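One-letter codes give the sequence; the integers encode the fold. A sample entry reads:
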Amino acid sequence: MTANPSSNRRSFLRGAMAAGVGGAVTTASAVAPAALHTIPAARAVPPFHGIHQAGVADPPPDGAQGITASFDVIAENPAELTDLFRILTERARLLAAGGPPAAVGITAPPADNGVLGPDLPENGPVITVGVGASLFDERYGLSGKRPAGLTAMPMFPNDNLRPAWCHGDLSLQLTAADADVCVHALRDITRATRGAMQPRWRMNGFVSPPRPSGTPRNLFGFKDGIANPGSVDFGRLVWAGTGEPAWAAGGTYQVIRLIRMLVEFWDRVAITEQENMFGRVRDTGAPLSGNHESDLPDYSDDPTGLVIPLNAHIRLANPRTPDSAGSQILRRSFNYDRGNDDAGNLDQGLIFQCYQRDPHAQFEVVQRRLLDEPLVDYISPFGGGYFFVLPGVRDAADFYARALLT
């Protein structure tokens, strides 16, 4: 007699929930791992339980490693979807806490893949989980619960989006001080959730340590994320607010943009032209009108763009007017290096990530201001998506998306 595929999947999920084990990693059409550079960094790991998930308010540590991934959910029904989020929570909680893996019988597969040795480190990965608009289709009866601003990421002018690298039902951000901690966590999670979700696309990244100090640099050599809002403004700019479903309280919108940087072309550009395109001094990060990266440019003193050009990146992205104050975003980006492309060119760039209260009133407003800025000749956005980062897991009895699914 032929086994029922749905029944097999359900049995697998429930067995994985009980034992914390799964199967082999599923291959995705756009999974292209890159070399991860290990730079040890001490840090205080944020707690797993809380109103908000870790990894949003918490900046990655200096020299952090990361994996940004998107998954397609293949659970058959709402019950299997709930099982998926329970299992995902259980694995994430255990990975974050560290300690020895569960004991298994001598004939069973090992409970852990062993990449990190016999015991999991206590400074486990920071794990951030989001959901895409496609999860709220007719499959699971969630269409009436979709967050108000959650849509598929549109194609913007100057984009070169590739479908296999876009969107997804679920996003996963893994961040740690060491590359193998991220790799271990990805293998553990995909093993435990096999049969319920499968990788769609994935990119490995890293955060450069401060050189020589201050904000980390991107692969164009410029400091990235200097103008992030302070935590005092997170309630106004980052965390979901009024107009959202009740279950979404504590969550936030995540925008991911995979951006190829044409570094070999960029390296042939004069430094003065590079600095004019960004509006900052490359070495210090200071605005062209200042001396330190923390200096605020005063555009009222430079109305014609004599010092900071009118089309400079920082001036367009954040013109510092009363009207633009509400469109500020929280950047949490990673660099990537995938070796060489088929033509022998360096394949490097930015895993741009930002968090905000409303992607249409914030990210997209900024994106429209940046239309046809000079930098577009040196970058090629090819993937990413919009996701809603779920509210935090409150305690040991809670799980990701509980308020959404129950």
